[in-house]
Each structure stands twice: as structure tokens, then as C-alpha cells.
Design a protein that fits this description.
alpha+beta
């Protein structure tokens, strides 16, 4: 009887370690898939926004860019959703519709670096007595991208919904 009780506890330990190992493997696979999708989304944004700069006066993510991102998500089978971070993030679902901050497949926000840099330069120039005009600085914008991945443990299902962030290079105009 003593060996039977020891065998059961050893079996439970093996099952727990097997579940932990499987969960880590699933998280690693989900993270690497989300990382690759994030890089592809950044490439799409950089090429599409720069290509459309001549037709618009500012850097905008238009419906063509969103549809290319949606096609990319459908091509790789990326289906994880989550809640966008707080701030000026715009969330999109798998069809390319804006969904706000809840149940988004990916989130994007534009950060106008040129305005902040211009404000900073004006404040510094006030102290030393120089002047800066609006045309002296190029317009600079970069985009932040947020994607989601999950820790899937076989019996528990999705235990955690984690975020993965990335940024484009500054786009000059």
C-alpha cells in the first residue's frame, strides 16, 4: 500500500511538470508568432504611409493600410484579441473596423514627434534668445503597434492575455 501512495504522488508531480512544460511551449510559440506579425505590421505601415505621403498632407493610416494589415492577419491565422492600452490607441478588429479599446486584434497610435520637438526647441530658445520658425523643422511621426498573445495551459485554457509592443522608425516629411 505504501508503494501505491508513493506512485500516485509521483504521477501527480509528473502531470504538473508536463502541464507547466506544455504551457511554456505554448507561450513561446504564441509570442514568436505575435512578434513576427508585429514586425510585418510595422513594415506594412512604414511602406504604405510613406507611399501615400504625396497624396495627403500628413501621415495617416488609411483604409488601404488597414486592409493590408487585416489580410496579413488572416494569412497567418492570427486570431488573438485583447484590450488596447490607455491613451490615444485605435483598436481594429479582424475585419478592419475600429472597435475602440475592447476586443481589438491590433492597436495603433500615431505620435507626432515634430510638434513635441518644436515645442521643446521653442522652450530652449526662449532661454538663450534664439528664434525658430515653423518651417525650420520637418514633420516627424512614428507609430506604435500593440498586439496580444496568450499563455495557453492545456486544462486551464488562456490564463493570461499579454501585450507585445513595437514602433516604426520616425517618418519624415
Amino acid at each position: 500500500m505504501k508503494e501505491a501512495m508513493g506512485g500516485i504522488s509521483l504521477f501527480q508531480i509528473v502531470v504538473v511538470f508536463l502541464l507547466l512544460f506544455t504551457g511554456v511551449m505554448c507561450m513561446t510559440i504564441n509570442h514568436s508568432k505575435a512578434f513576427g506579425v508585429k514586425d510585418e505590421i510595422i513594415n506594412v505601415i512604414e511602406t504604405e504611409v510613406l507611399a501615400s505621403y504625396g497624396t495627403t498632407t500628413n501621415y495617416e493610416i488609411n483604409s488601404d493600410t488597414v486592409s493590408k494589415i487585416v489580410d496579413l492577419l488572416n494569412e497567418v491565422g492570427y486570431r488573438i484579441t485583447g484590450k488596447c492600452p490607455d491613451g490615444n490607441w485605435i483598436g481594429y478588429d479582424r475585419n478592419g473596423n475600429e472597435v475602440g479599446n475592447n476586443s481589438a486584434s491590433f492597436c495603433i497610435r500615431a505620435i507626432n514627434v515634430g510638434e513635441a520637438y518644436h515645442r521643446d526647441l521653442l522652450n530652449k530658445c526662449k532661454r538663450v534668445g534664439c528664434t525658430v520658425t515653423e518651417g525650420d523643422l520637418p514633420s516627424m511621426v512614428y507609430y506604435d503597434v500593440a498586439l496580444f498573445y496568450q499563455l495557453d495551459i492545456p486544462v486551464i485554457k488562456d490564463a493570461f492575455n499579454l501585450k507585445l509592443y513595437g514602433s516604426t522608425k520616425p517618418l519624415f516629411g
